[in-house]
Design a protein that fits this description.
This protein is mainly alpha-helical and 505 residues long. The chain contains 20 helices and seven strands. It is elongated.
Amino acid sequence: MVLPRRGALLIGGFAVLLALFLALPARTITTAYVNDVLIFLDGANRIAFGQVPNRDFHTALGPLVYYIPAIGFGLSGRMGGALPVGMGVLILLLGPVFVHVLLSRLRPMLALPFGAFLLLILAIPANLGDPLSSISFAMYYNRIGWVVLALLAVMYLHPLDKAPWWRDAACAAILVLVALYTKITYAPPAFALLLLIACDRLQRLWAGAALALVGCGMLLVELVWRGSFAHVQDLIDTARVSGERNLALFIRVVLNNFSDFAIALLLAGMALYRTRRLLDGCFYLLCIGAGVLIISQNAHSWGIITLFAAGVVAAETCLRDPGVPSRLPRSASGAPLLFWVLVLPGLGKHAIGMGFYAVLAISGFGTPLGLPQFGDVRFGRLWSPGDNGFTELYVGNFPEGAALLGEIENPGRVLVLDFSNPLSAGMGLVPPRGDISWMHWGRNLDAEHHPAPEELFADVALVMIPRIGINSAQLEQLYGPFIAQHYRKFAETDGWTAYRLGDNE
């Protein structure tokens, strides 16, 4: 038991260290995707004012995506701490799950590097596959989804030692529920993995119990949330806009992850040669197929983390006695080496990136976004030319919008007709109800599929349209006639046009 205890201390200690790196500075540093980060800050502001996802505003993302920054905002007391503190809390809460899953199924030589790899993915504020210069909490929900799927995949292995079955059931249920309420994309593979594990006679008890716990958890969440049916409708509306995929996309996914595919398939082939189990073959196909489908819907091109999970399961399988005579008894010794080749590049890159972020956060890198509540939300450009200065213009427009609102005694509820709304969260204003969390042209709305203006503007007293926006031009063209009919233009500056509720003259 010495090694497992040391392993638990190492994995748990590393989780605590990463959580502290994020939480102690309580600053949000971003060098890319500022507009995406604003979605979650707006969400934290909405939760703080008592709004409930899918009941009070539309979103295709799960409620956890909004409650995580809301918890960080509540604990830190500032918007800059919403995302890093919220993620730090999540890492600490999932720490015991990491320890149990990895050390109950994997030898330390596999558990420790894989645990560090997954924890770094969870902690680092960067989109998978992006360069180190692209620091952002944008799309952080994808990293959560990948990690919980990878941990659940490891549970396909039989435990190394006997342990209470309820621990497995509890850990698996937590992972499935996190996937379900973070982003629906990750939920079907999570359920499929749990059902596949339930097909194993030796693990059927805890897998069945986990499914029952998930069902109870869903009922409990619905009693509190009461937004499941509205969430499904929001998902359907989003799928109508961005649900199409083509063969070229899947080919590109494979090519971008070709080396990972090659090593994972080699490890899976070695394991299958030893076990000759159909269920094992189904497991590897599920990891590969689900991973390709998921990444085809994400904005990152590299990082099919279920391939890494399949690789570590295969490596551990090769080290065990499968009970079937093998013609390659010495092949097992090379499996851990192959897995290290698979995982170490990403592990090294993410470790460097995490240290880099910690230095930037502690030093206060960047410039505040120019709104009263965003003093600790900072943007700065590193060595990458990126968007050739568009973000500086986009962010530089915020103070003018704040000044315009500051001249109004009672602005009421403000809608920014663009990708996201920086003004409500940035100025601590009560957000409107019935609108949409973010408006991404071609992703969750377009000219044919969009919220009805009567619903979008039902609770809006003031409409702010930025001259420099992500997709403000398309949205103004779409909703302009309704605004002209029901709102009155009362101010226009170089950066903003403002409309107040009332007949236009």
